[in-house]
Design goal:
Layout lengths: L7 H25 L13 E4 L4 H6 L1 H11 L4 E6 L3 H7 L7 E4 L4 H17 L4 E4 L5 H9 L4 E5 L15 E3 L7 H10 L29 H14 L7 E5 L13 H14 L4 E5 L5 H11 L4 E3 L6 H10 L2 E5 L2 H6 L5 E6 L4 H4 L6 E5 L22 H4 L3 H19 L1
Parallel strand pairs: 1-2, 1-4, 2-3, 4-5, 5-6, 7-8, 7-10, 8-9, 10-11, 11-12
Helix pairs in contact: 1-6, 3-7, 8-11, 9-10, 9-15
Length: 413
Amino acid sequence: MKKLSANAPLLNQIDRYAGACACLFLTVFRRLRWQEKAEYRKPKKILLLKLAEQGSTVLAHEAIQEAIKLVGAKNVYFLLFEENRFILDLLDAIPSENILTIRTNSAVSMFLSCLHRLWQIRRFPIEACVDMEFFMRSTAAITYLTGARMRVGFHAYFGEGPYRGDLMTHRLVYNPHIHASDTFTSMIRALEFPPRGFPAFPVRATGQISSPPMMHFGSEEQQKVEQLVHLASGRNEGPIVLLNANASDLVPLRRWDEKNYVELAKRILSTFSEMRVAFTGAPQEAEKSERLVQAVQSLRCFSLAGKTTLRQLLIVYHLSEVLVTNDSGPAHFAALTPIDIVTLFGPETPLLFAARSPRNHSLWAGIACSPCINALNNRQSRCRNNVCMQMLSVDLVFETLCQIIRKRIALNN
């Protein structure tokens, strides 16, 4: 059954109406009740709130480490959707019991699960909550309802973002010119300062690439995946290039045309006689991936879509040379492995959302209307014709890919 968290239009509608109403009600309640204490004390426990998108969780790794420096790993908690937990477990930065999940099987299930987590959080109690969902209204309400005396989040001072009430103590101005990873880290650093000085606070965004940790897997686990790949490829041997023809239900504008992936696969196989090409994807994309394999018409092309767990997919990245993907979670997962990544950007910009890896190669047309999806419009766009992705030609992607492959071959020799 499709999770509610994968239904972006419905989630946006819930957030727009129910979330905005909750923010308004809680803002009125906050102003009518007694004055909050103004004195500043360093927090002892921190809750990080980042419900959606596993790729963003990888980008938040540096922020998690910053929170650990502040209060220690056992005092850092993380609230997210249940299906996004895996990547946080893999990062292994905080105790597993500190990872709090919300079920998303249905709207009712999500609401009841959220209430249960809020009851649990208020019993800890949490002294600081950091809302990393930028301008989502419902998370602003959740942040307030945690009971945390220090609440960090973005505030629409002059209407520069969706209305989310006045529920934060540390009201930040969103800066669309720094990378998301730096933004998350600066939100944690905001806790080092008393709330009365905001939105100004003297923290510099470094702009330096801070790579996430490299994942390592046991030899037995790796052998099983090697066997799986061996069987899926028809027992062919040779280096692998991965193509993630992501259907991306969350942001359809980020799709690169399937015909482009087929043409790219054909060029790779005709230019590099020893190479294999594998299409990856979620279980629901398995049928589509098989159609792409058939269109390529080569024994050295095969599909892994739906045949691996997410953990096994990371091992596949370890075993492969290059991944070509649109701007989506796999680009960030791959940053946890030694693989080179070619990331195709269209309605969003690599300046803010590129994978934090020195092996990432972002391609972006940079046309006048791009990026049209951003934090200020809650990642929504009226555009129905992704010219920004169409302008990324197969020639451009193939040329980039060739440079990477030849460089890797030279290093291996």
